[in-house]
Amino acid sequence: MLKNKNAIITGSTSGIGFGIAQALAAQGVNIMLNGFGDRAKIEAMRAELGQSFNVKVVYSSADMTRPDEIKTMVDDAIDAFGTVDILINNAGIQHVAMVDEFPIDKWDDIIAINLSSSFHTIRAALPDMKKNGWGRIINIASIHGIAASPFKSAYVAAKHGVVGLTKTVALEVAEQNITVNAICPGYVRTPLVENQIADTAKVRGISPDEVIRDVMMDRQASKKFVEINEVAAFVVFLCGDGAASITGVALPQDGGWSAL
Questions:
Q1: 60 strand-pairing partners
Q2: Could you tell me the strand order of the sheet in which 6-9 lies?
Q3: What is the reported pLDDT for 260?
Q4: Which tens digit of pLDDT belongs to each residue from 228-237?
Q5: CB–CB of 134/85 below 8 Å?
């Protein structure tokens, strides 16, 4: 069903985003990768992904803080593939600090990348989806789009905003065969989370092992990290026919966190 569909995945040169790219490519989806990193390594990833699954893979270095670059990224995907059928908003950054000590530039960057970029990508991609009468928009939010944790004011605010944006857009396009959903994972062991472990240890004055045990896994009832391939499989399901009536919802994938 997804073969020959075309997807943009922001923040997809590592972690969850690249896992999603692999899972969709395995279904025959053409992929636009996006993100920062060593250009030679990204080119190798791009080529290998395309060869492994016999799909077209292109790359955009668009900066998710720059609306003009985001618009160009979407236009480039349409030029490369003909259409954009699937949009995965995954790009994100994090900073951990008390709100009265939170650097203003960090707040601005987190809101721009974790929230505003999703508005800009959706705004740019929707006309093409409407024209084609089909679309899947999946925003990778976080359990922090549903619940809060201390020291993460910008991240929690942004992810709550992503959930609200998801619901609003879903209502606007509900009659046009376009679904819009947010996946809200608990802690997934990614480079972003690895950095967060160290930052949280410093802020709280505890060891990295204590951060994992007493902070991250405290409310994640399963007491284990969510796996990247689990999130990727959820994305594939939401893109399929079986999820055609699922729209406008924030879907926890959190090891029981939201059940507490």
A1: 34
A2: 57-60, 30-34, 6-9, 86-89, 135-140, 178-185, 250-253
A3: 78
A4: 999 999 999 9
A5: yes
Distances (CA, A) of 160 to 44, 92, 128, 142, 145: 35, 14, 27, 9, 4
**Total length of the chain:** 260
Cross-strand pairs, 31? 7, 57
CA distances in angstroms from 258 to 12, 30, 220, 223, listed in the order given: 27, 34, 8, 13
Calculate helix-pair angle for 228-239, 15-25, nearest 10 degrees: 50
Q: What's the CA gap between 260 and 248, in Å, rounded?
A: 23
Separation of alpha carbons 229 and 116, rounded Å: 26
d(CA 178, CA 136): 6
pTM for the whole thing? Answer: 0.95
DSSP labels, 174-228: TTTTEEEEEEEE--B-SHHHHHHHHHHHHHHT--HHHIIIIIITTS-TT-SPBPH
Provide the CA 106 distance to its chain's centre, in angstroms: 19
Q: Which of 59, 107, 155, 187 is catalytic?
A: 155
> Which of the four pLDDT bands, split at 50, 70 and 90, describes residue 191?
confident
Tens of pLDDT along 192-226?
788 889 888 988 999 999 999 999 999 999 999 99
CATH of domain 6-187+227-254: 3.40.50.720
Active site annotation includes 187: no
The CA distance from 176 to 210, in Å, is 48
